[in-house]
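Subject: for your reference before the review

Hello V.,

The reviewers asked for a structural picture of the protein, and I figured it would be easier to keep everything in one thread rather than splitting it across files. Below is the amino acid sequence we used in the manuscript, unchanged from the supplementary table.
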Amino acid sequence: MPCLRIHFTEADLGRTRLAPRIDYMWEIVSAVQLLQHREGGLYFDGWRRSVRQEALADPRLRRLLHTLPRIAPHAEYFPDFLTPAGEYDELGDALDAVVSVPKPRLHAEIALLGDGSAPVQAIADGGAPALHGLRTALGRFYRATVLPQLDVVKTALHADLARRMHTYVHDGIEAMLTGIAPGAVWEPPTLRLPYALDGDLYLAGRGLRVVPCYFSLMHPVALADPALPPTVAIPIDPATRLPAGERRAGDHLGALVGTTRAAILRLALDGCSTRELIRRTGVAPATITHHTAILRDSGMITTHRDGAVASHHITPLGLQVLSWGG
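And here is what came back from the structure prediction:
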């Protein structure tokens, strides 16, 4: 199977970092690509149906579903400028970074698509109207397809990051790299990742930015240009992925499992000790013990003991309940 070989130095290990929040552009591009195939049906079929039904009633969304795959195809290559490096708290800032790329780079990256259509070439030329249109199209696509799922996306990403950070804190960076994605192999100083084609990425002291991505499904994806800040987007851990789809009106987690248990589930996203649960919920110790036992017996949390300290972590079933309960 093809693989991407990422070559680390000692400095790179110290400079490898996890993206701490949602990366809007990786999610948008991955969502565009998910609509171009049928994989991941368990998680995304409901979302795909919802998007396509909305497109039937919205001509603008229909046009987006036709045009955006030209610039972000489900293929071995899409332009790097669509997923700019850096942390952006707001979608608008990320979109500004996309359309602020220098014209020579814009032209060179789009040329690799081999698409001579007029809309794509207009973007490649870097004219203000075309870039404004691209920015508007990406923003509209986000609002129609990603934003309605934002609670699900953030909950799943939050749980994924908590698991990876737990591994990093307790077992070190090399253990985190070993479990970075299914099929990953850490053979110091090289990380081998399943990939669409064979390749090598030499970090050369720059470190690696790892971006867990909810809508990413197939395999890790790195930037095509090795000269750019090294970045790899990885599908989130399957154990933390929640199905995307229409949320049911009137569902409330507190009504489903009770207010205290709902609070415990939310706190268990990051892992939480019994003492911390007592402090943050204001509930008596005996009551907390009672509720954690019920959640554990129901398969919604797991409990790990380190001496006298018990820490509680949410399970995939607990994540499902947290997502669909509201």
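For the response letter, the relevant points are probably these. The first strand starts at residue 3 and ends at 7. Residues 246-251 have pLDDT under 50 and may be disordered.

Happy to draft the paragraph if you're swamped.

O.
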